[in-house]
Design brief:
about 270 residues, alpha/beta, 8 strands, homodimer, globular, 12 helices
Chain lengths: ~270, ~270
């Protein structure tokens, strides 16, 4: 059965890359604080980095802040990625970083918004409301979700590191729940590169799931340590999102190519 | 110091009501699935129920599903509530039900979207990412947040009811954390009316916080039991959001007035 992750794995093979290019048009990175500038920022980044991108990850917040015009731009950005996929001859999946999470009837509307209105292939979700808040997003195996498990930010420990009565930490419990919910093989986990020990534990607990691993670069996470902790035995299973590290570079195309190559080199050295 | 909750308490006094009218334009409740129909649905509900509304709670998902046009409508709806406030001679706060939660730089954009672009007074947030994901929303005491604590849906137990090593349940831990984060008195909690025992525990743990208590009516929660468990000693501290119970009624105005009166009657009987 084709699933979101089988599409992703095909793309990973096609471009030999685990790089996920983050489209985070922070106002401070724009030529001017306007929706047009958001669009320019994203289209340029897409064009420059597409050959090295296993996926693109637009972050909804930076579009939403521009209201209706921002949502128009977000849709245009996803359409542009589809066009670029055609030029590359290989579908580049779009992970909408939105971290939604609501009760079932509302979650249905969010799922429709992400997958139908916007045309994303995957979305990030919070697990806090439990299984019924996730279900509307995982009905179609060709659409995927990354559930927040252990996030990259300093405050992630406030809830996620709490020790449970049974000895697990909360994020380990989430990793286990995700596997029981994963009947259609379209659930992955967000596991930050800033917490290597946590990544070791989650990989031990969930040997087969894909991870989305933010925090490399701007947030201080180290690429080699993250790959060592998080790669699956098949050398896949991790998407490495990089946003500012590429968008703020003098030459985003060159930096994206370098990161792709760094990942390949590290994978090779880990194999030995 | 004026805070979001001092504005809310003034409105509660002005209208003698704890009713929060939910603006949930489910596609199935619309005359036709269009942004224009969403706007009509909301404007009619606002006009009919404003005299009895301590607050309005538009749910972002049902606007977002219409993309850019949906966001235009959401902004128009919040503007219409502001206009209605002027007619009522009393500010009716707008709680944007969005359940966002992201790392700090992204949370800043979401906060700007909710409070500046849209003009909401308060937002619902997930606690899963910890304190730094909440901070951008609580900088201005006149803007408030309701943190998800114990939600009304069946799956809420998957994470929220987990027992921690120290004996607390996870939602109790969230209630305690919220109080340590509440330096500016602008944090409340979402505690569903479908879990009365949980509400008793959260009220015992957080005697002073405001609760947003979904689940009365359509989701099966009972109003009297909820008020008994959740009201503060001053007879405030609970907002009772009702959406479909009002919007699907033959006469929403009459039903909103009845719910306001029911709440008053129950409060009176509880006092005795």
């Amino acid at each position: 059965m084709e699933t979101f992750f089988s599409f992703l794995e095909k793309r990973v093979d096609d471009c030999s890359s685990l790089l996920c290019v983050g489209l985070d048009p922070h106002v401070s990175d724009l030529n001017e604080p306007s929706p047009a500038s958001v669009l320019d920022f994203c289209l340029d980044l897409i064009k420059q980095t597409a050959p090295y991108a296993a996926a693109f990850k637009p972050n909804a917040a930076f579009f939403e802040v521009f209201g209706a015009e921002g949502w128009t731009v977000l849709k245009q950005v996803i359409e542009a990625i589809d066009e670029e996929s055609k030029r590359q001859g290989s579908l580049i999946p779009v992970v909408l970083d939105a971290k939604r999470g609501d009760i079932a009837s509302t979650a249905e509307a969010y799922a429709k918004s992400a997958f139908e209105s916007l045309g994303a292939h995957c979305i990030t979700l919070s697990p806090y409301l439990g299984k019924d808040s996730i279900e509307p997003f995982i009905q179609d195996p060709e659409k995927g979700v990354f559930l927040l498990c252990k996030t990259s930010n300093p405050g992630s420990g406030d809830l996620q590191d709490i020790k449970l009565e049974d000895g697990d930490l909360l994020y380990e419990h989430v990793a286990k729940l995700a596997q029981t919910w994963n009947a259609k093989n379209n659930i992955g986990l967000v596991v930050g590169a800033t917490h290597i020990e946590a990544m070791n534990r989650v990989r031990a607990s969930a040997p087969d799931l894909w991870f989305l691993t933010p925090g490399v670069g701007a947030q201080g996470g180290e690429l080699e340590a993250a790959l060592k902790a998080g790669l699956r035995k098949d050398g896949k299973g991790m998407l490495i999102p990089i946003s500012r590290g590429i968008s703020r570079a003098e030459n985003p195309k060159v930096v994206a190519a370098e990161i792709r190559d760094q990942i390949l080199n590290i994978k090779r050295s880990l194999k030995q």
